[in-house]
Amino acid sequence: MFRKTKWWNLDDIKKPFGLKILVRRNSDFFFVFTIILSILDNMRIVCISDTHSLQHNMLHEIPKGDVLIHAGDISNRGGERDVTQFIYWFQNIQGFDTKIFISGNHDHCFEQVNKPHHKRDYDWLRNLMVPENLAQSDVYYLEDEFMIIERPEFSRPIKIYGTPWQPWFYDRAFNLPRLGEELEKKWLMIPEDTDVLITHTPPNGVLDLVNNWRQPNESVGCELLRFHVERINPSLNVFGHIHEGYGVKKINNTLFVNAAICNSGYNPINKPIVIDLEEYNGQIVATYVEE
Ligand SMILES: [Mn+2]
After folding, report:
1. Ligand 1 center to 283 CA (angstroms)
2. Which of 42, 85, 152, 251 could form a disulfide with 276 if both were Cys (CB 3.0 to 4.6 A apart)?
3. Structural domain of 177
4. Based on the domain organization, do 64 and 127 belong to the same domain?
5. For the chain, give me the number of helices (H) and strands (E)?
6. Is the predicted pLDDT of residue 79 greater than 50, yes or no?
7. Ligand 1: distance of its center to the CA of 103 in Å?
8. How far is the CA of 219 from the centre of ligand 1 (A)?
């Protein structure tokens, strides 16, 4: 049954060419075995962003995966009703081991809740965001912090860091002056061994082009983030913010994903973006999966 199957070459055969070559070998066992392996040795990440309270109106369903990432702008103005509805919806998405979200420039309450003068105004958010409660439905919120995912398909833990900050953008939440020291400090907090970086803003020059009368054909992503992403060299950087920049781009070892679900007209018509994370000769590699 095994014939001349070279077990030690399985990885090399499977990774670049998918199942096609193996099917051609005409061995049922090998075929089934490869399917099992390909389920086991990937971590499938589904990326969404910028749902702007329109999560129930998304044109496309959320595909299956292991980890779901939302890169911010869960709401329009960060109001209690919108944010509560989003959290309930996110908690109830089934089939993922881990679901992670960050804030964006529209999610004001997440910035306001930290300001002392608000006192009890944001108790509703504190109650909603009790980490133990979120974790019961596998939900994690990252604000300038990382989490670790350990899975049998990786020889080491995967580090995921999330941060909501962006260069000044119409005076909204988590805005800091463009090219300023404060923003630089936020990016310096990103651990150097980050594998998956979740930001709300794109780095400058990567899936960040806007084209309107105010900013004709202008790259509006963060210049400082671009520098630090290149220095840190994560396998994956997921963001949104610039709805026009929806898409995927690979630069060197980093796969960049602008997962904005809403288009520039705030219609939630874009597809969630599916990524496979796998270990390949000791390297963690992110690959775009066209669905
Ligand atoms: Mn947005």
Report:
1. 32
2. 42
3. 42-289
4. yes
5. 9, 16
6. yes
7. 10
8. 16
Distance, CA 285 to ligand 1 centroid (Å)? Answer: 28
C-alpha distances (whole Å) from 19 to each of 4, 28, 31, 120, 172 are 18, 12, 8, 57, 47
Averaged confidence pLDDT in the chain: 89
Do 22 and 128 belong to one domain? no
Ion ligand 1 — residues with CB < 5 Å: 50, 73
Same domain, 121 and 168: yes
Output the pTM of the full model: 0.86
Residues 176 and 195 grouped into a single domain: yes
CA of 57 to the centre of ligand 1 (A): 16
3 pLDDT band, cuts 50/70/90, is: very low
Q: How far apart are CA 145 and CA 166, in angstroms?
A: 16
Amino acid identity of residue 260, one-letter, is A
Place of tokens 């133990």: 132
84 CA distance to ligand 1 centroid (A)?
Answer: 18
Asked if 74 contacts 94 with a C-beta cutoff of 8 angstroms, the reply is no
CATH number where 171 lies: 3.60.21.10
* Domain count across the chain: 2
Structure confidence at residue 278 (pLDDT): 96
